[in-house]
Amino acid sequence: MKENRYILSFIIFLLGSLSIHSQTHRGLRTTVEEALVSLKPEHLAIGEIKLDTLLLEKGNKLVVQMNDEFSYLPFRKELVKRAYDTIRSILPPDLKKKKLFILTSGYEISELIPFADNRKRFEIHCERPIVSPIKCHYLPTKGLLNRHIALWQSHGYYFEQSLNRWEWQRARIFETVEDLYTQSFVMPFLTPMLQNAGAYVFSPRERDTNRHELIADNDNADTYFETGTEKVKWENGGTGFAHTVSVYTGTRNPFDDGSFRQTKTTTDPRKEIQAHWYAPIPQTGKYAVYIAYRTVKNSTDDALYTVYHKGGKTQFKVNQSMGGGTWIYLGHFDFAKGENAHVELSNLSRKNGKTVTADAVKIGGGYGNIARRVDDSHIDENPGNSSINYSYTTSGYPRFTEAARYWLQWAGFPEKVYSPSQGKNDYTDDYKCRGEWVNYLAGGSDILPDSSGLNVPLDLAFAFHSDAGTTKNDSIIGSLGIYFTGKGKKTYGKNTPRQVSRYLTDVVLTQIADDIRETYEPEWNRRGMWNKSYFEARVPEVPTMLLELLSHQNFADMRYGLDPRFRFLVSRAIYKGILKFIAEQNDYEYQVQPLPVNHLRTEFIGTHEIKLTWRAVEDPLEPTATPEKYIVYTRIGNGVFDSGTLVSDTSYTKSIIPDSIYSFKVTAVNSGGESFPSETVSLCRCSQEKGTVMVINGFDRISAPDSFEIDTLMAGFDTRKDFGVPYLYDISFIGEQYEFRRNIPWIDDDAPGFGASRADYETRVIAGNTFDYPYIHGRAITNAGYSFLSASDEAVTDQLVALNDYRIVDLILGKEKQVKIGRGVTDRAFKTFPESLQTIIADYCENGGNIFVSGAYVATDLWDNGDVNESDKRFANEILHYTWRTGQASVSGQVKPAASPFPAFDTLHVEYHNTLNENCYAVESPDGIEPFGKGSYTIQRYGENNIGAGIFYRGQRYNTCILGYPFETIKTEKQRNELMNAILSSFDQTITHQ
């Protein structure tokens, strides 16, 4: 009977086709096709839309069958209505009354509207997630609270058996490689956004860039001990983790090499016992902390962990009924060199008699320790020798650079997960293991109750890639989304259609395209939504999307793609898309976390009290992202920030201790989560102050490297001239571009042609803008005996700070300069001296103020950066009394004193950071400046060429000191203290007529 139905359908199809092709309806096919093609928005680069068939079916139906490209349109109610109205308007009278159906890719187009059918939901109910912070200032009930997301960033460094070497999976091009490039979105931006919204994010790659890795384990008495009583004690639980070898070969699983401990939970504090892990910290810094335990029958869902760190302690409840037998990330924490990092596990619980298990703790990222065997043909072996000595090699790279395949082995996953090829092909293993990893995480949960695994109820999986094609000109490739609805099993979980993956793809892709087009690039292309059988899309048994954001091989794309502003925007768009998808699937109202606050400023309101104020920032792209409250984080001296204080208003008062430097940063919160932090402002009240200095942070810039193009011949990134400014740090830069000729073709990944780049930085973390420079300046100011306050530049330009109240101002300009993003559709940002600031500084100086300014582009930005503005030059000449001599004035990083009437500078030699490093941003192109006008003198020169590096002006009413390099980049605190003392003491000298 089934075969007869198929035959009948085919006959009807043929008859229908014949009827539409009759003489009466000649030309209708072309008209219908043209009408539906016209619905495509201009920015959709989805291929050619065509009409496949136009036919009449039994039951008075008129069916318009379009090709797959038509399904790539972002269908919404309005677009579906337009499609039907358009077709009905062009039908001849005898067809207008037919029941019209427009189909594409096997669906009627209204079925392609995200969330249009409320039955198509992938609902996850999880009351207790795998990790819950105990102290939280906000509860993101409209965010991603109790949600679990599997997220990975493309490829990684891997061993290529056919070439017998470790290598990247993609070419080194445009100063990055996809294996690291996608990390620059996922690690510093996307993952924190999801976490700030309340989600727990799983990663199949190491998420810590710290090169140190410390292991503490119950099998090592030097790193572990227990407390207990005769009646309540820890016992052996069975097989667990042990770090018994430095290098892992073959299929060896470290989580099968040791044991774990267990005991029963209690609600009675008198019966509390604990497990403790300790590890000595080799270098001060931030480290990720992971824990390992075993999930057993009757596991507790609220194991109490405490991490003791430089900022105090942070506590978590861990649901040990899921996630046992692998590394579970708790967070990043600051530790000081020489101290013992300490993690504690208690048996206290809300329920008696549950089982709590203790195994190991991992601190830091470290280097890869999974070794691969060198090809046998390169080894001279004796076939009769039963003990063959094979040669093995590790990557020699930090673990965060490596492919997922190696992390998953180190993290205890079975060989069937991390190596489907059983060790024969690491390339295919890597892209296959990510999908297998998703299912193993979810195995045993309600999603996959019949599969073995870690019992984690995952809400979705998301793969972030950047290989979306190339163009020979400078047009944008744009973004592509991939999902798979299945050719066999077409459902997820409890019969949820896999079509929900298309909804996820559509929502995220739409959000990305809309946000980019609204802000930076109105011609950003939204490409297709491919329903294709990619392994990463096909295998996961949860809603999954693969994103091809842009083409890292395409210069026009990468002019945006290397910019941290673009990375933040895109990551926020992805987070918003994921949030909206999960909220709709689980039927709750969402709210987007706020943007960071601005306009920070500090003031003394008494001898021992200060006031911090700021402004909320509304998001023009998202009406729900309105702040409701704020968290003020405080740091004292060179410590770390505390856990924060929740406030309802945009101000905060605090008592202070004299002679201590206080630093503050602020986040905004709402029911959707917490924003990224603001810049940092600092202050100090000196008990024996000589005066108060107002420090203005005017260094806001984050941007891509300088780029250029010469017609159709050459183009690229000029890192030597200006590396750009990363947000906090950069982990994707591999080395300078060296091939700028557009016509040089790709041959292979070792010879990628146009855009080819070096590899000397690909394992290093590069420092960027920390937004924390008032503290560095403030330390030197207090060392000279002055109190100081600080404010953001926008607080000054909006006249929220009265500069005339302060005898001395220190303006931080760092690497501030006007830059564009991408091809420069929007106005350039980050001008050193915008007109409003010039007016305020001129007024301040004319009223007798003294100003110290330092920055790499204090002159170039006014003389040699885009349109020349004569008023800018006059401001520098006539108010600050310096003039531009040259940009790129030095490469040595050495500054020496120059003969001048100001003896305080006579013996000062300075060395500043001029090469890329992990401690401070580098100054590639400091400014050469000269005095202008009577009373202005050169006080410093660059070491290798005697070009002027600094001037001091003594006038009738005010003094100025201008440096052509940033003060905060001086390498030693001793040199900073000496220079600041010289500047402030020279300001304090009596002004005499010249």
UniProtKB/TrEMBL annotation:
Record protein name field: Fibronectin type-III domain-containing protein
CDD domains, per database record: FN3
Cited InterPro entries: CBD-like_Golvesin-Xly, FN3_dom, FN3_sf, Ig-like_fold
Pfam families: Golvesin_C
Domain Fibronectin type-III, first and last residues per copy: 596-689
